[in-house]
Amino acid sequence: MIEARPKGSRHRPVLIVLHQERSSAGRVGQMLLDKGYDLDIRRPVLGDKLPTTLEGHAGAVIFGGPMSANDPDDFVKAEIDWLDVPLKENRPYLGICLGAQMLARHLGAKVKARDDGKTEIGWYPLQSTERGRLLMRHWPQMVYHFHREGFDLPHGAELLATGETYPNQAYRYGANAWGLQFHAELTRAMMQRWVVHGEHRFCMPNAQKGREHLEGRMIFDPALKVWLSEFLDLVFEGKQAMAA
Known about the structure:
The chain contains seven helices and 13 strands. It has helices spanning 26-34, 74-82, 84-89, 98-106, 130-135, 188-197, 210-237, and strands at residues 2-3, 14-17, 39-42, 59-62, 93-96, 111-112, 120-125, 127-128, 142-147, 150-151, 158-162, 170-173, 177-180. Helix 1 (26-34) runs parallel beside helix 7, helix 2 packs across helix 4 and helix 6 packs across helix 7.
């Protein structure tokens, strides 16, 4: 499905890979449309095929989902294998949560939960690394999470941001592949749905209650939104904002 800008696009479309029937590209999709990209939305879990080349696309984004990158489902394995396409063609690729974990697995790193069962469900501190600060001036101090597994840093990848519970929060592999453990794409409506449908997870170790999710958004989301717009420029247009 192609989602197009009302006045036409300035760029080739971005491939958007979603994992549930009612999932959306959220704020990432809104921002890409505003920046002049159409969206080519596909859901392999529902039978959509992924392209054999990204020559007709500006890049790709694989979003999160309730499944694990370790699951044996055919579509999970197929998506992980498909990552050969952006990597070999050196096209921009962004993996968010599950998408970042799929990239890590493709590159030979492990995806796993902590031995103590601690999750990140809610708002947690983020610290940029020196390399991250060289790439971007404004990293958010708090970011939103909804996961119970993390990943090892793939061999050859650059760690851009870290956290206390799951140390690998943002990374870059090569020139054009990026992974984020956290979620910057949620609109307010999306967060409210996640809080309602994910309430059963709030009893898990280290998880925050729904009220904290929504209260945290009012405090921390403005900085996260500014960062996301700048980050998308870096991923898809190579616009590097050097630290002051």
